[in-house]
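FAQ

Q: What does a record look like?
A: Structure on top, sequence underneath. For example:
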């Protein structure tokens, strides 16, 4: 169990002081917990002994063990496909059936890291026509950003897929207005430049940052207003984005449903604009 999960599991029994400490740890997870205990105490405005008691309360032997676990979580977030493959068990028989079973479990468990309230908030942001919506992803996960940008672009105006080329990022940053939404996909072997872009969007342009990531948490979370952590492990050489894709499509479908009459009119206009040559294919 991750340190985050331990804290969340005990949230109902925390004292006021412990809630302050939990908030400080989760607001800058996992980095806050890697600081010296005195530094964390000053940041959370609690005493070092309070931190020691809190750590024991969530089921750890002490601050040193918590830091070891946090470092281990960070290490998991940097594993290469070679390391993942060498540490995973082999699928001996019926590879396709077993892989699909693991993927189905992954999709089914996606809701454990995302509450309905959080999903509703994100869909409300994504569906707000007054907000510009900017999306980008990592080396592989940018395919998810493109997918979502395409569908939301049919449903509402002011949707932008930010290209992967950093040379054009200033153009998109300068377009952003306060309250716009910057949505990023970033999974383990995270890309530092995406975190830098998100930080600039949040601090310089006052955009609301939403990140879809994994349980080890992209560094983008340090700038994010909303964090959606989805499962990606299948015990095979590559992580699977099946759960992330399911969440992505759920967002697109929910946004379209909520303002259907406007979406319906926009899709009809979209199709009329693209069917100049009689092309009706998707």
């Amino acid at each position: 169990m991750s340190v985050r999960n331990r804290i969340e599991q005990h949230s109902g029994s925390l004292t006021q002081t412990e809630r302050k400490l939990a908030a400080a740890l989760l607001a800058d997870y996992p980095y806050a917990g890697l600081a010296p205990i005195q530094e964390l105490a000053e940041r959370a405005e609690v005493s070092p002994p309070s931190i020691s008691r809190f750590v024991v309360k969530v089921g750890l032997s002490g601050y040193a063990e918590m830091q070891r676990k946090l470092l281990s979580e960070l290490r998991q977030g940097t594993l290469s496909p070679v390391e993942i493959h060498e540490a995973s068990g082999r699928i001996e028989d019926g590879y396709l059936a077993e892989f699909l079973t693991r993927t189905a479990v992954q999709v089914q468990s996606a809701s454990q890291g995302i509450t309905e309230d959080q999903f509703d908030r994100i869909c409300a942001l994504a569906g707000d026509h007054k907000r510009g919506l900017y999306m980008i992803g990592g080396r592989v996960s940018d395919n998810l950003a493109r997918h979502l940008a395409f569908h939301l672009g049919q449903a509402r105006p002011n949707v932008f897929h930010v290209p992967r080329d950093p040379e054009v990022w200033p153009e998109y940053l300068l377009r952003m207005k306060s309250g716009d939404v910057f949505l990023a996909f970033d999974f383990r072997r995270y890309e530092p430049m995406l975190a830098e872009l998100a930080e600039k969007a949040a601090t310089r342009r006052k955009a609301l940052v939403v990140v879809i990531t994994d349980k080890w948490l992209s560094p983008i979370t340090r700038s994010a207003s909303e964090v959606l952590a989805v499962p990606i492990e299948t015990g095979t050489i590559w992580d699977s984005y099946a759960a992330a894709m399911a969440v992505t499509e759920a967002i697109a479908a929910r946004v379209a449903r909520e303002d259907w009459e406007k979406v319906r009119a926009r899709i009809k206009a979209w199709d009329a604009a693209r069917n100049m040559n009689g092309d009706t294919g998707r």
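Q: Is there anything notable about this one?
A: The longest strand covers residues 208-213.
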